[in-house]
Design brief:
- The complex is a heterodimer.
- Chain A is built from eight helices and 34 strands.
- Chain A is an alpha+beta fold.
- Chain A has four domains: 63-96, no CATH class; 110-292, Jelly Rolls; 317-405, Immunoglobulin-like, CATH 2.60.40; 417-512, Immunoglobulins (Immunoglobulin-like, Sandwich), CATH 2.60.40.
- Chain A has a twelve-stranded antiparallel beta sheet, with helices on one face. In chain A, strands 3-2-5-8-9-11-12-15-16 form a nine-stranded mixed beta sheet, with no helix packed on it.
- Chain A is globular.
- The termini of chain A are far apart.
- Chain B has helices at 26-31, 36-58, 61-78, 89-111, 131-146, 149-160, 165-172, 176-194.
- Chain B has a domain at 25-115: RNA polymerase sigma factor, region 2, helix turn helix motif (Rna Polymerase Sigma Factor, Chain: A, Orthogonal Bundle).
- The chains are: A alpha+beta, B mainly alpha.
- At the A-B interface, helix 2, helix 3 and helix 5 of A face helix 2, helix 3, helix 5, helix 6 and helix 8 of B.
């Protein structure tokens, strides 16, 4: 009879697999568990490329530290070398083109969708070279275009960046959920896939969008323009609250020391810009919504000229328009000495308004210089022209066309606020502020109080000064060069509407050493 | 022992089919130190299992891909130290995966870089499952994170990896009896944490 030792018998006590079958939490976990899925093929290929590289490095290290192992491996190493050589031939272009994979943050890659003209790329640590459709663009790559050239970059999330002629942009971040572009120079157009955190940086200005189309240009030295074609973009200047630039709006940021930002409806002339139109046409062909271009007929030919009109005559009537609580406010100015019989206000949606079809009001008092249209509706975009009927002929003189976009108010309406920062610089104290929730105001009241002053100061503690700044800019930068060394100042700014301060920022202190 | 006999246990539980995997030949593991083909075969064998375990634990594809890569990188770098007499390769790689997820949460806890409200819905659910279930799942993942490490690992291996008790025990280097107790205590702790929360409806 065979005798088993107790030790052996006790070594393994099998537990029934159903031991937790009746446990409600176990059942809950199993019911919530998602189904298994396959790893993305492209990601898997990248991972394998990285692992082969790690494998080669580990093998080299082992050979260096183990002579015995080296001797044993001499024969099979020949075979391995052949395999590695083949693999190296396959992997070399990948590594040369900057496809280095780092632990924990393997790069995604973008590809060119289109290259036209002279386009160059630069991978980190490499020089400029001619771009190729087979390039795998990853984090740190820079793309630049020459005169008359364009490059379209297609990101893995299906977002698209078009680098227009004479421009340069660098991919600062590229992951599945986040893309960051450094706009270096020229113009870039961005069609952002919904769900991706997409940011374009230019110095201190960050334009962030999710599911939108927008254009960024800094072709004019010191000026950055953000134009939203579809949906909205949030533009943050430095650490200030982002300012929303909605569809059909354009923000211009002065990039000089005294930063200023201006936001207004985009003009028809700007929409007719060739580069912008080319991008929008490509979007249209790809089946994307073209936003503001769908509401404004910028590509259409002018309406047929009614008999007896004089369309070629340059306008001598300058028209301006804006939206207020009372409706669309239109103001105009006449130039020249022409005497007019009547002024006719024209309005349309879609095509450019023409006389007499789109007449909405007629004024026999030709000395009038403004009018309001209170029949506008929220969410509509109107085009206005003023037709001046001359008394000596039957000809019509048209003003320029004004586009008035009547926004749908946000729900709930955002409170007006002003955020301010104050920081010492070499020449004084730099005070910057941005306005959120208001676009119509006449200026600012900047107040300064001496918070701390050395003994014997000419401006002792409590000394108050103020300065009125007439500006409609939503971002403003001001250097207080009257600050005296050794003093600490508190600043706040008030937003002036209709001659009175509507809201103040918080007080911020800065010590000028 | 009174009576001196062990009575056969009545099988009152439901029959569960446990998916098994063919054993990995030891030679393949050794070859994977040098041969890219062997490495690829090794990865082919384990990547889906490891990736899905990690994806279920961390919730986002990006993190799951990164951690999966880290797991296999650790395997390659440490293959020389792997001792098949002490544990099977499967047990070894599961242990590396478990530790890598723990490392991930530790570093995430230190960074505290993303607020809870920014956490995306688990991508593993997006195609097929409804959002309500995805929300409950995220609650579950958050509760598991609150467990002490030994319960967290036992519960994860059992339910997120789908291992048998024996495999859980081997991976954690404990007996099956201890593994089952650890799992049950982990479940009890989860129930306590879930009280009054959204998961209550399932309990």
């Amino acid at each position: 009879m065979k005798v088993f030792s107790n030790r052996r018998l006790n070594k393994r006590i099998t537990v029934d697999e159903g031991f937790d079958a009746e446990d409600p939490m176990a059942s809950a976990i199993r019911s919530l568990m998602p189904a298994d899925t396959e790893m993305d093929q492209q990601s898997r290929e990248h991972m394998m490329g990285h692992l082969f590289s790690v494998q080669r490095g580990a093998a080299r290290k082992r050979r260096r530290t183990s002579p015995q192992h080296l001797r044993r491996a001499l024969v099979p190493a020949l075979a391995v070398l052949v395999v590695l050589a083949v693999l190296a031939a396959v992997m070399l272009p990948v590594f040369l083109s900057g496809q280095k994979s780092t632990t924990g943050s393997r790069a995604q890659v973008a590809r060119f969708l289109n290259i036209s003209g002279k386009v160059q790329v630069r991978a980190p640590g490499h020089g400029w070279r001619v771009a190729s459709m087979s390039d795998q663009i990853s984090r740190g790559w820079t793309v630049r275009t020459g005169s008359g050239s364009i490059a379209s970059v297609h990101f893995p999330d299906r977002s698209i960046m078009r680098v227009t002629d004479g421009s340069e942009a660098r991919i600062a971040k590229l992951t599945r959920q986040e893309i960051a572009i450094e706009h270096v120079s020229g113009g870039t157009y961005h069609r952002v896939h919904k769900g991706t955190k997409y940011t374009v940086y230019d110095g201190e200005v960050a334009s962030r969008a999710m599911g939108t189309a927008f254009n960024i240009e800094n072709r004019v030295p010191g000026h950055l323009e953000i134009l939203t074609v579809e949906s909205a973009v949030e533009v943050a200047i430095g650490s200030h609250e982002p300012i929303k630039v909605s569809q059909g709006e354009v923000m211009t940021v002065s990039m000089s020391q005294d930063k200023k930002a201006d936001k207004q409806p985009v003009s028809r002339e700007r929409l007719q810009d060739g580069r912008l139109m080319a991008n929008v046409r490509q979007d249209e062909q790809a089946g994307f919504s073209t936003g503001i271009y769908e509401t404004v007929d910028v590509t259409g030919t002018p309406p047929p000229t009614p008999p007896g009109t004089e369309p070629t005559q340059p306008p001598t009537v300058q028209l301006q328009g804006e939206v207020s609580d009372r409706g669309a406010i239109l103001t105009w100015a006449m130039s020249g000495v022409t005497v007019y019989k009547d002024l006719v206000l024209l309005r349309s949606e879609g095509a450019e308004p023409a006389y007499p079809d789109n007449e909405i009001a007629r004024y026999s008092d030709t000395s009038l210089t403004s009018a309001s249209d209170n029949s506008i509706q929220q969410g509509h975009t109107y085009q206005y022209r003023l037709a001046a009927l001359r008394s000596d002929t039957t000809y019509v003189v048209y003003s320029n066309t004004v586009i008035v976009d009547v926004p749908v108010p946000d729900k709930p309406p955002k409170a007006v606020s002003v955020s301010l920062t104050a920081s010492p610089v070499a020449s004084g104290v730099a005070v910057e502020w941005s306005v959120s929730g208001a676009s119509r105001f006449s200026g600012f009241l900047l107040e300064r109080v001496v918070a701390r002053a050395p003994a014997g100061s000419r401006t002792p503690q409590g000394t108050t000064t103020s300065k009125v700044i007439n500006s409609g800019d939503v971002f403003y930068s001001y250097v207080d060069d009257s600050a005296v060394a050794g003093h600490t100042y508190s600043y706040r700014v008030g937003l002036v509407v209709d001659g009175a301060v509507m809201v103040y920022s918080e007080w911020k202190q800065a010590e000028f050493k | 022992m009174p009576g001196g006999r062990i009575q056969p246990r009545k099988n009152t539980g439901r029959l569960r089919v446990i998916e098994g995997q063919a054993a990995i030949p030891a030679e393949l593991v050794r070859e994977a130190m040098e041969s890219p083909e062997a490495l690829e075969r090794l990865c082919d064998h384990y990547v889906t299992k490891i990736y899905n375990f990690i994806l279920k634990r961390v919730g986002t594809v990006q993190d799951a891909e990164d951690i999966t890569s880290i797991v296999f990188e650790k395997v390659i770098v440490n293959l020389e130290t792997f001792d098949e007499s002490r544990a099977s390769f499967t047990t070894w790689i599961y242990r590396i995966a478990t530790n890598s997820v723990t490392d991930f949460y530790r570093s995430k806890g230190r960074r505290r870089e993303s607020p809870l409200e920014d956490e995306p819905a688990p991508e593993a659910f997006r195609a097929k499952d409804d959002l309500e279930r995805a929300d409950l799942y995220m609650v579950l993942v958050a509760l598991v994170e609150q467990l002490s490490l030994k319960y967290q690992q036992a519960v994860s291996l059992r339910y997120f990896m789908g291992l048998r008790v024996q495999e859980v025990a081997e991976t954690l280097g404990i007996t099956e009896s201890a593994a089952s107790k650890r799992i049950l205590r982990g479940l009890d702790e989860l129930k306590r944490l879930a009280e009054g929360g959204p998961l209550d409806s399932l309990l």
